[in-house]
From TrEMBL:
This is Sodium-coupled monocarboxylate transporter 2. Its main location: membrane. GO terms for biological process: sodium ion transport. One of its GO terms (cellular component) is plasma membrane. It comes from Folsomia candida. The keyword Repeat does not apply.
Length: 131
């Protein structure tokens, strides 16, 4: 609807890869059970005055790689990540599959997308609804 170059093979492979990658991320997040450390909220050691006291800096823990941080992704973002992976891989496989001769009906494209699609008049001299 929004991508004229997409075909069935690319859409199917994008679906499989997107679904598989999100299943992997969600299962690994469950298995690793990584949680964020809680910040101290106790006020037992606070001075009685309402002033600011600067303490010495404590060493920072080792920074994890992005591959480990992806398992701490909020479940609310799973659908966004899955959509990005599915559309991106589907389009890459569709463009890479080199399916020549496949015509897309203009009526299947979104009206906003029709403006950007170049219609080749010589190729469509017999049927004006195809691009």
């Amino acid at each position: 609807m929004a991508f004229p170059k997409a075909n069935a093979r690319g859409a199917t492979l994008g679906l499989v890869i997107g679904l598989g990658s999100m299943m992997f991320i969600s299962v690994m997040a469950f298995v690793k059970k990584k949680t964020l450390p809680h910040l101290p909220t106790s006020i037992d050691q606070c001075p009685q005055s309402n002033g600011t006291v600067i303490k010495s800096m404590e060493p920072v823990e080792e920074i994890e790689s992005w591959a480990e941080k992806i398992f701490q992704l909020s479940y609310l973002l799973y659908s966004l990540v899955a959509a990005i992976i599915t559309v991106t891989t589907g389009l890459l496989f569709s463009v890479g599959s080199n399916s020549k001769g496949v015509c897309t009906d203009v009526k299947y494209l979104h009206p906003a997308i029709r403006k950007f699609v170049r219609i080749d008049i010589a190729r469509n001299s017999t049927n004006d609804d195809k691009i």
